[in-house]
Amino acid sequence: MNDEPAYGKGHNSPPADPAVDPVKAALAEFADTMAEADNWLDGEKVETEAQHDAVDAILKVIRKAGTAIGKAEKDYVKPHHTAWQTAKALWAPTIKDLKSQKEGLAKLVSDFKVKLAAQKEEESRLARIEAKKLEAEAKAKIAAADKADIESVREAEAKIEEAKAAKKASSAANKDTVKGLRTVHHHAVDDYKLAINWIATNDKDAIKDFVDEYARRNHRDSNISGVRSWSEKAAF
Asked: Which residues are CB-contacts of 161 (< 8 A; sequence separation ≥ 6)?
């Protein structure tokens, strides 16, 4: 046997206070039957008509318990839900208004932001090219510099500094991005047959899930090729 269930042990326990434990209070009249149901649910199958009748009698009460707990839950939750709705209604207009302002302002600057971002990206690209060019020139100057010729050494060193400055400028240009932009991905299905064939080849589970759900929803109304449909009796 299990320890005492959440719904209690019926008449052997004092009545539950709805204010303290509304769940136990709602199930008080069904507690003994629920405990009896636990005793029956021990893995053994029903083998006689007497057992069948006994289980059916318990099941009838358990159904009533389900209805009772559903109603009790609804009654208990309703004031909380009403309070939640009232609280949400207090904030909703301002939140909605701020959302509209945010979306409107974003739309107002969107085209310019995209244009500015493209301009900065081009500037960054040119800066990277210039930095690489000056770095190559500096390396060439270093290789060609004659240490015995102070002027050639100074020119090489100046070229090195110029290359460093260009690299620093390139790094700064790369970081100078336009804030408030995000990448938005779009798609359009141009050929459903090709798309379905691709999915069937590359993601068989997705096709299986779709077919399972489609068959579940439509097997009673349509004779779907490859899908068996039958009826049988089952207890409820």
From this structure: none
